[in-house]
Amino acid sequence: MEVIDAELLTKVAHMEHQVLSVCGADLMSDVLAFTKAKTLLLTGLTSVQAIRTAQVVDLAGIVFVRGKHPSPEVIEMANAEELPLLTTKHPLYETCGKLYRCGLKGCSELGSGEGAN
To answer: pTM for this one?
Structure first.
């Protein structure tokens, strides 16, 4: 949270999820096709589709970029799923770069066994 100046939108208890990689995308079809389990999704899409995608892929959490905030309905859904939601004022590209510099890999850099669905 500190690295990307993020604010937590859901319950603190949900922050214990393991993160193996990071993905930046606004098209949920790309997330479904290219991410692996335990991925932290960075996106500007604040709709319920992001939460539903997280359920299917077993995402570690979602960070909304560019200062975007989801509706209370989306936050409630995420809390029910124990899915951490965060928001940062930084754009997608910069947020990805900050996390990459900290050693978090992209999905394509994971070995075939790591985080596989």
So the answer is: 0.90
